[in-house]
Amino acid sequence: MNIWNREFECMSRPALAALQLERLKGAVRYVYERVPYYRESFDKIGFQPRHLQSLSDLAHLPFITKDDLRDFYPFGLFAAPQREIVRLHASSGTTGRPVVVGYTRRDMEIWTELTARMVTLAGVTDGDTAQIAFNYGLFTGGFGLHYGLERVGATVIPASGGNTARQLMLMRDFGTTTLIATPGYALYLGEEAEKEGIDPSRWKLRLGLFGSEPWTEEMRAEIERRLKITATDNYGLTEVMGPGVSGECPCRAGMHIAEDHFLVETIDSATGRTLPPGEEGELVFTSLTKEAFPVIRFRTKDISRLDTEPCACGRTTARMRKISGRTDDMLIIRGVNVFPSQIESVLIDSDGIAPYYRIDVYRRGALDDLEISVELASSDLLEPYFQLEELSAAIQRKIFATLALNAKIRLVQPGSLERTTGKSQRVFDHRKP
Ligand code: DLL
After folding, report:
1. Which class for 122: exposed (0-12), middle (13-18), buried (19 or more C-beta within 10 A)?
2. 3-state secondary structure of 358
3. Domain of residue 336, residue span
4. What is the pLDDT of residues 124-181, one digit of tens each?
5. pTM: predicted TM-score of the whole model, two decimal places
6. CA–centroid distance, residue 140 to ligand 1 (Å)
7. Looking at the structure, do residues 310 and 390 belong to the same domain, yes or no?
8. What is the number of domains present in the chain?
9. How remote is the C-alpha of 253 from its chain's centroid?
10. What's 378's domain CATH number?
11. Which of 237, 301, 321, 424 to mutate to test the pocket of ligand 1 (most atoms within 8 A of CB)?
12. Co-location of 273 and 345 in the same domain
């Protein structure tokens, strides 16, 4: 199995901890000296950089949230002068001001190294032809993967997002072996291929690197079945760097985190208390080497758990389990906590329906209503009414068994729910003002 940087990816845990501590001391001093926001927030609790003596001392420092970052739009938290910044990206906020992040030349070098590690983790080599169907732009997905793939020597096709017919043409004519996209878009590409009567097993496509949005194991199995590939999960976020923060190896035992550059904690999102490895909680990241846009204890809202046991692949870096949801994703419906991923797991495992769905929550009087629209796999099913009744009743029973909630199931025509080339939006909570 290929490992891109054996020295850092296979370090002993004690040596890694020593390296992290040394880098953390530097990072804390660096932000204290260069970013007024951090200096003020540290001063407020009487913390001086010299007080940081062990990795666990980090838990004394305040968190920073996405809202805090937004308040400093555009460059208020930059730690390097404009002359040293060679790249800007911004987070894909749905509303309001985006978070703008910058990279120095050294940041770019490290980002490239880390995406090279990530694609090697997934199994990409210089023998691969990689089609990047992430958007190139302020979104970190396209450009982030681009440089890492080039670094490992893969042949890069910078297709960018959208234009599905052309994506399929490129895959066939250029002999693409590796597809890079959101899982939602990968699924759509598979569907369009099927519609065109294309059998992907006749192509060279063998591997998919997917990420940037939540997806379940059931969705993974569906993508693998449709595109006849191995699908890997990859995690990152603009505020921390972009893609390359963590990625999955063939052992499928979580995503290896680049711990020599990022310190990750899991916290109880209600109390802020740090949790021991293995317990599920909100991920919090601290950058150890970033120059332009360092972050100390950034709260991601992403829920996962950490595993520091050695991995069969030989790497020693901690792994984070598949993101199970976001703290702001959780719906409370009639007092029941519901994660959209629970609904996705039920739906994709059901026969007769396509893996497209939409969740709507309404408040009718004092009660919440959960409505789930699901696409039928084939229009043949539209005819016999009793079959439709039976199908929706079966889904309703499964949802009830998982969530103890009665949902209204709407079966809709094949192809009628929105397809996306980027991040998917599947949940619409109409109760919010
Ligand atoms: O999505 C960076 C990225 C690009 C990652 C390409 C992987 C591949 P943002 O647009 O800032 O950055 O969105 C970050 O997306 O906080 C998660 O909620 C979600 N996310 C990213 N990767 C995964 C994943 C990029 N593998 C936000 N599984 C994060 C689940 C993911 N959620």
Report:
1. buried
2. strand
3. 331-429
4. 999 999 999 999 999 999 999 999 999 999 999 999 999 999 999 999 999 999 999 9
5. 0.94
6. 9
7. no
8. 2
9. 16
10. 3.30.300.30
11. 237
12. no
